[in-house]
Each structure stands twice: as C-alpha cells, then as structure tokens.
Amino acid sequence: MKIGVIGLGYVGLSNALLLSKKADVYAFDITETKRKLLKEKKSPIADKEIEIYLTHDDISFQVVDTLNDAVKEMDYIIIATPTNYDEEINNFDTSSVDKTIDFITDTNPNCLIIIKSTIPIGYVKNKIFETGNSNIVFSPEFLREGKALYDNLYPSRIIFGNDSKEIKEFVSVLINCIEKKDVEVLYTNTIEAEAIKLFSNTYLALRISFFNELDTFAEMKKLNSQDIIKGICLDPRIGDYYNNPSFGYGGYCLPKDTKQLKANYEEIPNSLITAVVEANVIRKNFISEQIIKMKPRTVGIYRATMKANSDNFRESSIQKIIENLTNYGVTVIIYEPLIQENYFLGARIINNFNEFAANSDIIVANRMTNQISKYKEKVYTRDITGCD
Question: Which domain of life is it from (predicted)?
Fold first, then answer.
C-alpha cells in the first residue's frame, strides 16, 4: 500500500510515521526547512515518540520535495494541512485543503482522499458536489500537542465518515500499526464524522470552562478551590480528570473548533455552545484583572506555550492576558526559550531565567514547575494539580 501525506504538523507527521510501519509513506510539506529536518531524521516539532520513530530503520517513510511526488501513484492520500479560523468570514479557512483536493482530483482521481484537517460540518458533501470526486472521506483526529504519535499508537477511538471496502482495507492496515488492543472503530456518515470532531473538542472546552468558572468563584469568595473541585470530582459521573484550573483553553484546536461549531449553530437555538466561547474570553479578562489588582510594576510571564512538553504557542491563552496587561500600562517581560526574537506581542523576551525572575515583581505561570518553585511567594497561578 502506498500512502501520501500532505501537511507535516502534529497530525500529518504522526499519521505518516505510524502508517510507515506497514505501508510505504511519501510525505510532503510546503515548508522547506521542515522537509530538510525530517530528511536528517530530526523532528520539527516537540514530540518524544516522533523523535524516536524518525530514527527507526524499519519504517518506510520518505519525505518528498513536490506535491506531485506525494500524490501520483498513491492508493490513499491523507490531507493534514492547517485550517485556521477566519474571524471575518466566521468559518475555517479551508483554502489549503481545497487546493490539495483539486490537485489530487486532477492528478490521481482514483485514489482515496482522507481528510484529517479539521473542517466545517458539511464540508465533504459540498466538496464532492463541487469537484465530482466521490473519493473523499473525513476521519477526525483526537491528538494532544507533544503526544501526537503516542495518541495515534494508543487511540481512544477510530472514526471514519464512510464504510466502503477501501476504507476498511485502510483501517485494517491502521489497526496493525497501533499498539493498543481492541480499539473501537466507528463508521458513520461523513457529516456525522465532522460533527463528532467539533462537538468533542467543544465538550473539552466546556469542561475546562466549567472548572475555570468554579475557580473564579472560589478566588473571588476566598474559598479553597482545590477542596471544592476534589469534592465534586469524587462523583464517578464527573470523574477526577481534566479539572485543573487554567488561564483559559488555548492551543491550536479548541479555540478555533468552538468558534466553528458556534458558527454552525447560526440559525439553530442554543445558549451553551455560545457560552463556551464567551466563557473563555471572560476567564482571560478575569485573570488579567486579578494581576492588575496586585499593582505590579513588572509582570513576568513564564512560558508562552502554557502546556508541558509543547513547543506551540499558537492561540495560547496567555496572549490575551499579555495584551490586557500592556494596554493597562503594566510592563511585561517573558521567559520563553523557544522564542528567538527580542520581543513578543510588544513584551521583551528574557531567556536568562535568573535575570527574568529577578526583574519580575510577579511571575505569572499557567502551570507550576520545579524551575519556578523557589520563587513561589511571587508566583501567580491557578494550578492545583500540576497537570495540563
């Protein structure tokens, strides 16, 4: 089996390496530096399992330099290009997926296209009508940044918006690549598969928002947030997981997926879906206000990534807090070794930690770490468990 993978971010690269255990994989990304690193068996993203797998000699993984080389003669092609949310059109920007599907349809119309990029509900149906190419399916991913390949090796579930013979052959290969046994495979219609992705991420954002608003109440009323959360989560229907207060949900997926689902609800009665999006804005503003109340001269932001083992600060919740603080007139400095520039969002980068700590009146940290624990008396965090 020959599989092309287009787009080598977390989703594309983790899928490419996973499938290269049992299939011949030809991977392409438009970023030349990323292709160069991968040819040198170096990971362009922080992910332990990806870094290890790239050094394996028993995988059939080849990085190619043209889109054509990842498309021609392929049996299956996975599209994992970015689909950022466009605030002006209230929709995902699917242009990269559109262009890739159009190219594949012209170049290799008989192959099966598997979309892994997150897309609006109804996208595949519209694209099939537009192109006349019925060989397009959607299969949602449920991956964590920094744990993408691990989550592919041990998936919670496998979902495909089609149950054709070709899809089942692909799933058979996929099952042979993963380490987890007895993974449930669900075949649905394509629109239901698209909905599963957006509703899953919106539920996670809802859970984060719930515990954040609980924490806001506790902080305002001077209550012990940890005790309240522990008592609530002893109920097995709620569960003691994914309940650690934060500065808001961020990362690449949750902010854009919740906004897209809200947009899909435009003519459908709702209050909860809209509230999930609004709650995140309210939480970030509340955190900013709490910091401002302390009247610091200089606020030190510890890490822009906000999550452990991640090198991604796209849509990080701290960005809005930095903006709020600087707009209020507070001096902000940032400790973030991954940022090589001198400034980020108008704030000065200090990559010497001791210098950063000495110059900060308050150290703002989404999560406590050993590095900042000795400055605990001036750390502002809502971290209770130390988990993401």
Answer: Bacteria
Q: List Cβ neighbours of 142 (8 Å cut-off, separation of 6 or more).
A: 151, 155, 156, 157, 197, 200
Catalytic residues: 253
Q: What residues form DSSP beta bridges with 301? A: 334, 364
CA distance 43 to 52: 9
Distances (CA, A) of 54 to 33, 67, 81, 275: 16, 21, 21, 42
Predicted pLDDT of residue 322: 95
pTM (whole model) above 0.85:
yes
> What are 11-21's pLDDT values in tens digits?
999 999 999 99
Is 307 annotated to bind ligand?
A: yes
Domain 2-188 fold: Rossmann fold (3.40.50)
Ranges of residues in the chain whose predicted pLDDT is under 50: none
242 is in an annotated binding site: yes
Q: DSSP characters for 192-215?
A: HHHHHHHHHHHHHHHHHHHHHHHH
CATH code, residues 197-380:
3.40.50.720
Q: Is 69 annotated as a binding residue?
A: no
pLDDT of res. 310: 67
Burial 65-93 (b: 16+ CB within 10 A, else e): eebebbbeebbbbbbbbbbebeeeeebbe
Residue spans of the domains in the chain: they are 2-188, 197-380
Span 234-270, pLDDT tens digits: 999 999 999 999 999 988 789 999 999 999 998 899 9
Q: Is 118 annotated as a binding residue?
A: yes
Q: Give the Å distances, CA to CA, from 45 to 8, 51, 89, 110.
A: 10, 9, 30, 33
DSSP secondary structure code for residue 110 in this structure: T
Tell whether 274 is in a known binding site.
Answer: no
Annotated ligand binding at 160? The verdict is no
Using CA atoms, how far apart are residues 4 and 64, in angstroms rounded to an integer?
10
- Is 378 annotated to bind a ligand? Reply is no
- Report pLDDT for 8: 97
Pairing status of strand 298-302 against strand 136-138? unpaired
Name beta bridge partners: 85: 92
Cα(151)–Cα(179) distance, rounded to whole angstroms?
Answer: 10
